[in-house]
Amino acid sequence: MKMKLKKGVAAYICAATVLLLVLIFSCSYKPSYETVYMPISSENAQIVNSIMSTTSTIDYSKGFLSRFQTYPHAVSQNVTSDSSSQKTISDFSSESEYYEDAEIIDETPPPVAPPQKPRRQVTAPTNGIVSFASDDWSPNDWSYRDIFVGRNVECTIYTVVNNISQEGDESWINLITLQNTYGYEIASHTINHPRLTELSQDQQKFEIVDSKKQLIDLGFDCKNFSVPFGDYNDDVINIAASVYRSTRISENENLSSPYNFNLLKTFWIDASTTIELQAAIDAANINNSWCILSFHSNSYDDIADMDKTVGGCIDYAKSKSGMMILTIDDALTSLGAPAAPGV
Ligand SMILES: [Zn+2]
């Protein structure tokens, strides 16, 4: 009985000591940096931009920008600088100055982009070109990717930057895998998918120019643009032409030389337009010109449906001897278009 009591007291003292040590440690423990993960949005992009502008002397080769570049949803305050003349995070009065609007949603380590496979060599066309373009970046672009990947064909995804999510089918890791592993082209379709003609010129610039910057920051070779809702005016086209190699609008027409790369027309893939689409492919094949076929993957309820229509068009183009199926950007290279202007 005496022994039992002694044992009980010893165990109690031991547990209390451990608890005390844990308490002391947790009070004094201050992590050297914290990582804040945010869903990407225009507001968050503005937070990042404001951090960048206030801390313009920070060495961007490390700290949050390099982390931001490897993972779109991570903004870290692990900002360091080598020179004493440069600001560090401690020069700012409080963390909340930076992260006021940030929502901490996850602290798992960021995924790592797969290595990028080299682009294929592109030659001038001899029997026409067909390009496939999917607008918006929707879950089915990822979940139905076998329609393209299984046929060894590459698609251009005109991406709405705000559709890139942290997890799920529309995640950044899936999109960068389509580019790096499967050779897809990731192009811009604005940040928020607005009607561009209803915006001020500054807002248009934000949607058109900044979407390119953001996609490049996220690791995408963004060189081309498509207009949401096919809604454009001269300002939209001029702003887009200042930073992109091409702009795709929504009008239904085959393309032919001399090409206007600032107004690329397209046909829309739909189950009811098979004959029209086959005629467009035939015309590009016969005239050695370019046919762009666009679609929205989210308009298909299942993979069999999309395989019948989109896959059917791929098979038809493949049945034409010597016809090339290229991304928008590879088609532009094949046709000798000038390189994309810088941002
Ligand atoms: Zn769209």
Please provide a written account of the structure:
By secondary structure, the chain is α/β, with parallel strands linked by helices. It has three domains: 1-30; 33-110, no CATH class; 129-334, Glycoside hydrolase/deacetylase (TIM Barrel). Helices cover 39% and strands 13% of the residues. The chain contains twelve helices and ten strands. The chain has helices at residues 2-28, 42-54, 64-70, 96-99, 139-143, 146-149, 172-180, 201-217, 234-243, 274-287, 303-318, 328-334; strands spanning 35-37, 74-76, 129-136, 156-159, 185-188, 224-226, 246-252, 264-268, 290-295, 324-325. The strands form two sheets. Strands 3, 4, 5, 6, 7, 8, 9 and 10 form an eight-stranded parallel beta sheet that branches. A two-stranded antiparallel sheet has the order 1-2. The longest helix has 27 residues, at 2-28. The chain is globular and about 95 Å long. The N and C termini lie far apart (82 Å). Mean pLDDT is 79; it is low at 1-5, 25-46 and 51-106. Zinc ion is lined by residues 135-136, 189, 193, 228.
